[in-house]
Amino acid sequence: IGTGYDLSATTYSPIGRVFQIEYAQKAVENSGTAIALRCSDGVVFAVEKIIQSKMLEPDSNRRIQTLDKHIGMVAAGLVPDARQIANRARREASSYKDFYDDSIPIRILNERVSAFIQMYTLYSHIRPFGCTTIIGGVDRKGPQLYMIEPSGISWGYFGCAAGKAAQAAKTEIEKLDLKKLTCRDAVIEAAKIIYGVHDDLKDRLFDLELSWVCPHSNNEHQLVPKDLFDRAEAAAKEAQKEDSSEGSEGEDAQT
Amino acid sequence: CIPNNYNNITISAPSDPTKRTLDPYVTGTSVVAIRYKDGIIVAADTLGSYGSLARYREVPRLSALGDVLIGGSGDISDFQYIIRDLEALRTQEYCHGDGVYLGAREIWSFLGRRMYQRRNSFDPLWNQLVVAGFRNNQPFLGLVDLHGTQYEDVTIATGYGGHLARPLLRNAIDKYGPNMTRDQALEVVETSMKVLFYRDCRTVNRIQFADVTAAGVKISEPRELETYWEFQQFIRGDRKIPQ
After folding, report:
1. pTM value?
2. Which residue of A145, B140, B141, B151 lies most exposed, with the fewest beta carbons within 10 A?
3. A76: which strand partners?
4. Which one of A66, A90, A98 has the shortest CB-CB distance to B84?
């Protein structure tokens, strides 16, 4: 695609593209879908955790990370890269607390993590991160959500998605009225979306991970409690059954 | 501010900037603790002394970290640094997401190692720390000091409390044994704090009591102890005992 101009992140193509960064995006597109919703009272994360074997313990290899008491993160792309980003973000949050005696505001953490990720696009001896990182939580200004691409560009969102079925997930998210939705309801919707965009033919086995930061969790980042999780999963499976009995509308292939 | 003879001239040349602290500045006095049947009671006043000046009268010297209580005597800034550090550690544990946190014994050991390491670098954290916790129906009460000394006991008293309160606490242990009730424990701790307020010049009558039980750690609001000052010798001001 970028013959000759794609060997290093320090090379521009004649029309001003940096191909290494675009290739990093490809790593993201091959991973299980991750979505996050900013609701009226908090933030909800959901991820389609594609697993290789039924022998794996369900709770291991968590894809949703906690960055600080009030902030969670999920990433689509290379999982080890996501762990590095999470560790850096945790250190940033910890040093902010040490310096300012206050929990880090989410927009500031977003700035720091974006700058960190962008730095890896400047050199030929280190590759860009192969992850799109979604950071969200609740601070003094209320719930906030940011998504950072491998280039280091980030935006604030009401709802965002990354990974294989990002396009299909975005379509579903746009149907929700996020300004009015509460976290309790959003958890159900998020589960439905993940189950809805999951491609059974390509990846049979997957686990759903759901977490939130909302008044029910004391505005702390936690996995969604078991009873609500079970309800959400059951509702998602129900919705799948209804869709497949109507036709193959529920399993829209992504373009 | 307080002159001493410990300035270690062999560590740095006269031209080097001072790199190590060997003097406490704002200090806290005794912390007193006793173990009873269902838990531990810990008490400390809320004074930060600047030498003989009772400078900061509302300084909390008891700190809860989950189900562990830490009380600090000695340099207040070092105590505050230790608590900040332990809180950051707890946030890290929270980020692991598995609900596992260091318990009292582990924190006691961790602090002991750190204090010893600092002592060996001639840069001590100038504190005596009381660590108390209750986990899996097991109470823990121990002390760590600026030298890195660690010990566990059923009664702990730092500073002047070691001289004035320890005998009272030990008598209570002898009298009531392992089945001491909370009321009995609170009574002896209150008496100890009262004696300390009467006799220790670096105290203030504003005491916090902490309850460490299976239900967790609960630090009370500061309160005053009832004291008696109507002794004839105080009022009359001379040394003759009246008939």
Report:
1. 0.88
2. B151
3. A132
4. A98
